Structure formats: structure tokens, C-alpha cells
Amino acid sequence: MHAHELTREQARRIIVRAQLLEADRPGDVVEVAEQLGAIKIDPTAVIAPSEQAILWSRIGWGYEPGQLPKAVEDDRQLFEYAGSFHPMSMLPAMRARMRERTLRESTAAWLEANAAFRADLLSRLRDDGPLLAADIPDTAAVPAGNDSGWYSDNQVPRMLDLLERLGEVAVVGRVGRLRRWDVADRARGPEPDLDADEAAAILDDRRLQAAGLARQKSSWSAVGMAGEPAAVEGSMWKWRVDPRALDGVDDDRGGRVALLNPYDGMLFDRPRLVEAFDFTYKLEQFVPKAQRVYGYFAHPILCGDRFIGLLDAALDKPKENLVVAAIHELVPWESEEREAVEAEIRDLADWLGAGLRGLD
């Protein structure tokens, strides 16, 4: 198939639209989840938790924080898996992939050494679930290493996370930030009738839908050979484009300002940010304070199809004020751009129910 030839402006427009960051906003949580495929969950709430910030940056004033747990726990239109919320339409393919997951040798050895612990945990959930991790006894015979520092000495959270990836247990809700677990067959229903190749093709297509345009076989976007080949003006990359995203690619529907949480999916493919947007982004959360340039948790500022700056701001501990430490301009701003950015920051403070300090 002949590759679609795209200008850089068309490429950026496809990506921005695929991420629901153009002027026309989506209507609700489910619409966002269906298009993006995954909404990252992270407790780092410098301004707001990532899952809430991602939804607000798309929906705007039509979004209220209570809509997300309602969609997950009451309406069952979304589900949680491996640190993200996903639409139910992706569950069959994802479960088929879970079933075929291959473990690293060290992980498989740890699981085998703790076969009795695994059986105890599953039995407890079957009899008494849903449960919090704290409600499940740690009967591990062999502790796992903890080089990453992400786990405590309690082996229950580690076993739950592993069994979730294998499709044996599932998160069915939360109590605050704590996950409630149940056995997957009760939480998710019968296993899907999909083989691994069918599931992989479906998931590649969904990832390309969310990306709009991605490098062929990129490990960052993982779209494989989904979609159709494309060439982008000035780029040597081999791209894949979602053919659905080509409709109206030359229509100018208008842009807007978006303040993006550092864990926003728009930012995940760092090489694509550089290639398509000429934007290099480094999260400085884990950089020593003296070496930070833009701030601990600076939010990139997207204006139309250009990244024009970063917002260094935080919600103070009493949650009374959004405090702006700095607004970094990556390019010279027009007065209209400055007004639009400041208006978006004010809207963010209002959405948080907070005052605003440091903007003027």
C-alpha cells in the first residue's frame, strides 16, 4: 500500500485530535476512555491525581470527579487494570493477552515457591471477597526481592499485582486510594473466546486509535502494523496512521489550551514529541532539586498543536489555593496565547474549588 503523505501540521493535528485535545471537547468519561483506551492512575497529586486531571483536560467544566468512580463501580463501563482505567470494550482482548502472559524466570520461580500462598490468597478472595490487601494474610514462604523499593515486606500486594497480570484476580473498586480485590471469574465473567493473535491485533488497533499517528513498531506506542503506512514531511521515520483519523484532516476545527498532567498519555511517547512537535519533555520529579529547570511536577502547556510552555504550580496542603510558582515560556507568546493560558489556569483553580496565587 502506498504511504499517506502528511505535512507536519497534518501529523500534529491527527495526534491532537486522537488525544481529544482539540477545541471540540468530548461529552463524558466513557467517551474519553473509549478513544484513549487507557487513563493512567497515579497518586501524585501535586495539582490533582492524574486520572482526574486527564479527564478534566479533555472534558473541562462538564467533568466532576465523582463521575469516574461511578463509571467504574456503579455503571461498570470502565475497569481498572495494572494502574489504568480502560473501557469495557477492551476487556475481552486484554483478558486473552493476560491468559498468554509469559513470566520472567525469576518471577515464575517466586510464584512456584509460593504456590500455597497463591492458593490461600485465591481461596480467601473466593470465600470472603471483595477484600482490601490488608484483609488478606501474608502466608508467603519465600519473600521476593525489593530492589525497586515499590513494595513493603508484606508479600500480599506483590502477589495480587502478579495475579492481576495473569488474569486471576481483578480490582473491582477502591476505598480512597486502596484497591478492593476479587477473583477474576466472579468480577469479569467467563473467559473470552479469542486467541492471542486476535487479541494482539485488536489491542494494536486500539493503541493506534489513541495515538492517531505513531512510529511503525514503536516500543513506546506499541501499535505494531495496525492502520496504514504514512510518511511525514521532514521525518525519516516509517509511520502508521489510523485511517479513521484522516477524515477531515485539513479541516481547521480550532485549537485550545490544555494543561497536561505529566502522566498524560499524550506525553508518553517521548520520541514522538520530539519528532512531531519539536518538544523535549523530561519529568523532573526524580531529579535532585538543585538540578531542576522547570519544577518538580511541571505540566506541559499545549496551545493548539504546539507545546509553548510549562506550568510549575501546586495545590497547597490545606487545598485552599492553587499556587503558581512559574510559567515557563518555551517560545515567545502572543498576547492572545498568554490570555488563553491564564484563563485555563483560572478555570483549573475554579474546578479545584481553590483560590489562585502567583498568577499576577
UniProtKB/TrEMBL annotation:
Lineage: Bacteria, Bacillati, Actinomycetota, Actinomycetes, Micrococcales
Name used for this protein in its record: Winged helix-turn-helix domain-containing protein
Organism of this sequence: Microbacterium radiodurans
